[in-house]
Write a structure and sequence with these properties.
About 55% of the residues lie in helices and about 20% in strands. It has about 425 residues and is an alpha+beta fold. It has two domains: about 270 residues, no CATH class; about 150 residues, Protein Transport Mog1p, Chain A (3-Layer(aba) Sandwich). Helix 8 packs across helix 9 and helix 11 packs parallel to helix 14. The longest helix has about 45 residues.
């Protein structure tokens, strides 16, 4: 199951660790949190962390060595399984707990409608219904929701902060691991910054909408409006905001511990991996028929692909250098566009279509910036591949009717490493 679709089902979730007995005040907080569905929801967090940690760009390079990969998996699972999530949540929340702050939310949760809504949220977020919720988009295509219903659902997403929280949860995992590694490595070694935009807002927004439409499918528009009145209350907002803050902080702490324990293995793997990558030397290679040259680490293999279009087939020529043991691929490519395509749109409209055509189910655009070479328009784009474990970077330029591309595919660990800039800086247009 795609971890994104588990992540976006969680609205009132927290992650915690503790094991001390509950005090009398904590028992009151526990009763309230159980009532609003938090206790059942937090049971999903071990799965959530386990799924996303394996896609962390720093820890992903440890999977190159199976033995090291298995040891790091043990570290991850040990830290996750040793946590008593709900107990810590109760203790953290009880320190700020105020009866008057939760009174209205408590009474609503006890009502028939409150119990109905809470039950729907719990069922929609359970692993057993995850696949059904994912496939609900097909149902919506055949029977789209009314404008009013969609507006109500979007307002619920907005008022609960679910979109921001879904993005922050992933970021918190990366920040925690980054912090843990930084504090535990014993020699200078490159640690990539926490992943940026693994889940683009547009993609996540659409997924959240489908999930919430599925979750509240049995609620009437009038019931959703009553729910919104409760959610918009300033005290309810305090509850949600407090829980969300605790959640983010604890994810960072848990993942920092994972990073700290994995640091010795990461340090060794990173040093060895980078030594091989940095040992690659680039030799200028003139791409026959392409009108450009680029530095490649070895003699490329030339291939061609044919792409059918409304105005005829387009042949794309590729020069490929692949290092399977390191998971690296360097590419240079070009193709000529028919005059009919060039005259029907602006250069950037054509470039935009080229970038859009690269995206797919496992490849999501996360960065796009306009650039140029000798006055010719272009883009520097990056894609998250396989939920952030890998990435693809492409610089593409439209030179007359010719599209020129210089691309790299590899571990996300190298996303910001300066060694890659040497490759992209080597591009030269030649007569």
């Amino acid at each position: 199951m795609d971890p994104l679709n588990r992540l976006i089902r969680i609205v009132f979730l927290l992650l915690c660790i503790a094991s001390l007995p509950l005090s009398a005040g904590e028992e009151e907080a526990e009763e309230f949190l159980t009532l609003i569905g938090v206790k059942d929801q937090v049971e999903l967090y071990p799965q959530l962390i386990s799924l996303y940690v394996q896609f962390d760009p720093n820890l992903s390079i440890l999977q190159i060595d199976n033995a090291i990969g298995e040891r790091v998996t043990e570290i991850v699972e040990s830290n996750i399984s040793n946590m008593e999530y709900f107990t810590f949540v109760v203790k953290s929340f009880s320190r700020l707990y105020r009866g008057e702050k939760v009174a209205r939310y408590r009474e609503w949760a006890k009502s028939a409608l409150g119990r109905k809504i809470t039950q729907m949220e719990m069922e929609a977020s359970s692993p057993e219904t995850a696949f059904t919720a994912l496939m609900y988009s097909e149902t919506l295509q055949e029977n789209p929701p009314s404008t009013r219903r969609e507006e109500l659902i979007r307002r619920i997403i907005e008022i609960t902060g679910s979109l921001d929280q879904a993005m922050m949860l992933v970021k918190s995992i990366g920040e925690g691991i980054y912090t843990g590694l930084q504090g535990a490595v014993t020699r200078p070694v490159f640690i990539t910054q926490p992943a940026r935009g693994i889940i683009p807002q547009g993609v996540l927004d659409e997924s959240l909408l489908v999930t919430f439409l599925y979750g509240y499918r049995e609620a009437t528009a009038e019931e959703l409006e009553l729910y919104l009145v409760v959610l918009e209350d300033e005290n309810t907002q305090w509850v949600l905001s407090t829980l969300q803050t605790i959640n983010q902080e604890m994810i960072r702490e848990v993942c920092a511990q994972i990073g700290q324990e994995a640091a010795p293995y990461f340090e060794k793997a990173a040093v060895e991996f980078l030594a091989e990558v940095e040992s690659l030397s680039y030799t200028e290679y003139k791409v026959a028929g392409g009108g450009f040259a680029v530095g490649l680490p070895k003699e490329p293999e030339r291939t061609a692909q044919t792409i059918p279009t409304e105005v005829g087939d387009i042949e794309v020529v590729l020069e490929v250098c692949e290092y399977q043991d390191l998971g690296l691929t360097f590419l240079a490519a070009f193709n000529l566009y028919p005059e009919a395509i060039i005259t029907q749109q602006t250069p950037y409209e054509l470039l935009d279509k080229s970038v859009a055509g690269m995206a797919g189910t496992d490849k999501v655009l996360v960065f796009k910036e306009k650039i140029s070479i000798k006055g010719y328009p272009g883009y520097d784009v990056r894609f998250s591949v396989f939920n952030g474990m890998m990435f693809m970077r492409d610089t593409l330029f439209l030179v007359g009717n010719k599209l020129i591309q210089v691309m790299f595919n590899g571990p996300a660990y190298l996303t910001d490493h300066p060694v890659l800039q040497r490759f992209f800086n080597s591009l030269q247009l030649i007569e």
